[in-house]
Specification:
The complex is a heterodimer of chains A (about 350) and B (about 200).
Chain A: E1 2-11, E2 14-20, E3 24-29, H1 36-48, E4 67-76, E5 78-87, E6 91-95, E7 98-99, H2 103-106, E8 112-115, H3 121-124, H4 127-139, H5 145-164, H6 170-209, E9 216-221, H7 228-234, H8 236-242, E10 253-258, E11 261-262, H9 263-266, H10 269-291, E12 296-300, H11 302-305, H12 308-323, E13 327-332, E14 346-351, E15 354-357
Parallel strand pairs in A: 3-13, 3-14, 8-12, 12-13
Antiparallel strand pairs in A: 1-2, 1-4, 4-5, 5-6, 6-7, 9-10, 10-11, 14-15
Helix pairs in contact in A: 4-6, 5-6, 6-10
Chain B: H1 6-16, H2 23-35, H3 38-54, E1 56-57, E2 64-65, H4 71-74, E3 79-86, H5 89-96, E4 103-107, H6 125-134, E5 139-142, H7 148-161, E6 167-170, H8 186-194, E7 197-198
Parallel strand pairs in B: 3-4, 3-5, 5-6
Antiparallel strand pairs in B: 1-2, 6-7
Helix pairs in contact in B: 1-2
The complex binds adenosine-5'-triphosphate, magnesium ion and zinc ion.
Zinc ion binds near residues 69 and 72 of chain B.
């Protein structure tokens, strides 16, 4: 899978950009604050409809303008044209010239995995960041997952809204509890299954890039121990106190254990970074295995900051991308790009919101 | 910068509040109307007023009608023992289309939605309870949407309306999940009606 064309209008610091990209390796070089990461952000947006910087649409509109446009041509199984328009008043998403009605019809057209400094949040951040990681990986591999996740979210919000009332209608509450439990049980089952399959990949990736003999192990710790319905009913007293739903997949944790100790508490800074990169490498490999083709890899800065051993850990994945005509975008400043990656790459110069091929 | 006359701006504002009409369509329609032939515009305005004047909810089932009770409620050939419960008046049309349902209707006027502050008291549930006392109803067929709120509402109705001698069924799933009846085609709907099951 690769992005053959990218078109930006009033996106971040790009007033206009039209660029063609071949499969293979693209190195985006430029000084700080020139717009390298913004390109990766746009590509990731095409794949996931989100910013990996965790911001909303408004922040991505070029300052002083009122809307942004991001378009692309994605070549995978077939060729697809994607157009995304965002303004405070109107959002439009079209695929091959037709408006997209259901997100499930869209996701899957492009897949991307990003490696960036924010990844450290996977280890250091709250459980929410790890649930989001699982959810993204599931929505990239199980077509029905997103709809299920939305169903759960709506049942949860409805239920919480009932719990805020002074005297919630008991039967109505039961009605929404049933919905919560039925969607929630499927979420739990899918998450557990994913972690079982994904964990060994993350363990191996971590071994490849770590300096010591560290073993990463992933443990899914669902908030529900055995029976969601029963435990939800048992939590009524607590719910009355907190006026919110206290048990369910929205409270799940994905424990990251390094030699059997929680990485967030016991890992060194370097180890935490190793774990974060290991998770992302695992994600890319899992997607590659699942779909038979690698996702577009977006690697922001981090190469320059890694030592030789960790850089080397990336090479198998990059080699795989090369062999299967995948695509890699990597940003770096002129001084710190990983020269061992050699000559087989396309260099681009990024300056003040413009992109220039440096053939 | 030149701006539009106030009356057109006001019209754009009103049109923009209509369902399915975005800001751009509102502007296009307003500009069109402001320049169209007077007779045609008067006819449109009169048509809107007439419809608003004449159309009301049927006092029995809650469907849209000009004469209350509506044609369906007063048709003696319809089976008074079966009542199909739907969310909105247009859903009656969807169920009528395949022509397989021979009973009567009850329109709730919405579904439970805590996020929009829609509670049981906002729906025509008390009216349905009265009908259960008055009419010889043997079966309630719940035909609400298969989304979270529709399903929770079905459960609520089944619990609250359950009484001896009354069968409460629900149309089979296979309806597009998370959407209303209007997206289901006739075949899907008639299958869903045939395949209805007893609730709970
Ligand atoms: N909404 C926006 N409108 C206009 N310019 C923006 C907007 N958001 C960010 N920028 C500008 O984009 C530039 C940053 O771009 P980007 O983050 O891609 O830099 P970079 O090349 O990756 O730099 P570094 O090497 O420091 O990571 C800054 O000059 C910033 O002011
Ligand atoms: Mg950057
Ligand atoms: Zn009627």
């Amino acid at each position: 899978m690769h992005l053959a064309h990218l078109r930006l209008r009033d996106f971040r610091n790009y007033a206009r950009l039209d660029a063609d990209f071949s499969p293979g390796f693209h190195l985006l070089l430029g000084d700080n604050a020139q717009g390298k990461t913004n390109i990766l952000e746009a590509i990731y947006l095409i794949a996931t409809l989100r910013s990996f910087r965790g911001v909303g649409g408004a922040q991505m509109i070029r300052r002083g303008q009122s809307a942004y446009f991001v378009g692309g041509v994605v070549v995978g199984r077939g060729e697809h044209e994607v157009k995304l328009y965002w303004s405070a008043r109107e959002r439009k998403l079209s695929l091959d010239g037709r408006p997209v009605r259901k997100l499930t019809d869209y996701l899957g057209v492009a897949r991307a995995v990003v490696f960036c400094t924010e990844d450290l949040q996977l280890v250091k951040g709250p459980a929410r960041s790890r649930r989001r990681f699982l959810d993204l990986l599931l929505s990239q591999t199980v077509p029905a997952y997103l709809a299920l996740r939305q169903r759960y979210a709506l049942a949860l919000r409805s239920r919480n809204s009932l719990l805020k009332q002074p005297a919630p209608d008991a039967v109505a509450l039961d009605g929404f509890s049933r919905e919560l439990v039925s969607a929630g049980e499927s979420l739990i089952r899918l998450r557990a299954e994913l972690v079982r399959k994904f964990s060994p990949l993350a363990t191996l990736a971590c071994q490849r890039i770590s300096n010591q003999d560290e073993e990463l192990r992933l443990e899914y710790r669902p908030s529900v121990r055995e029976d969601f319905g029963v435990e939800l009913a048992q939590s009524r007293a607590q719910e009355r106190l907190y006026r919110t739903t206290v048990v369910g997949p929205h409270r799940d944790e994905l424990q990251l254990l390094l030699n059997d100790c929680p990485a967030a508490q016991f890992g060194s800074e370097g180890q935490k970074r190793t774990v974060a990169i290991g998770l992302k490498l695992g994600q890319a490999e899992y997607l590659t295995g699942f779909h038979g083709a690698p996702p577009v890899l977006l690697i922001d800065d981090i190469m320059g900051e890694l030592d030789a051993k960790r850089r080397a850990g990336f090479l198998p994945l990059l080699e795989l991308a090369r062999q299967s005509r995948g695509q890699v975008f990597m940003t770096a400043t002129e001084e710190n790009w990983p020269r061992e990656l050699g000559g087989n790459l396309q260099r681009w110069g990024v300056r003040e919101g413009t992109l220039q091929s440096q053939a | 910068m030149a701006s539009l006359p106030d009356s057109i701006t006001a019209l754009i504002g009103s049109l923009g509040k209509l369902p399915g009409i975005g800001p751009r369509s509102a502007e296009r329609i307003a500009l069109y109307l402001a320049q169209a032939e007077t007779g045609a515009v008067k006819q449109l305005a009169q048509g809107i007023l007439d419809a608003r004047d004449r159309v009301r909810l049927c006092e029995i089932c809650g469907a849209l009608t000009e004469a209350s009770p509506c044609a369906l409620c007063s048709d003696p050939r319809r089976d008074a023992g079966q009542v199909c419960v739907v969310e909105r008046p247009v859903d009656v049309l969807s169920i009528e289309k395949p022509g397989t349902f021979i009973g009567r209707y009850h329109v709730l006027g919405g579904k439970l939605s805590p996020l929009n502050a829609i509670e049981p008291g906002d729906l025509r549930i008390a009216e349905l309870e009265q009908r259960l006392q008055r009419e010889p109803i043997l079966e309630l067929v719940l035909a609400l949407g298969a989304d979270v709120e529709g399903d929770a509402t079905s459960f609520y109705l089944a619990k609250r309306l359950s009484r001896p001698g009354l069968k409460i069924t629900r149309i089979a799933h296979g309806l597009p999940a998370g959407s209303g009846l209007e997206f289901a085609d006739e075949l899907t709907l008639s299958r869903a009606l045939e395949g209805r099951r007893e609730f709970l």
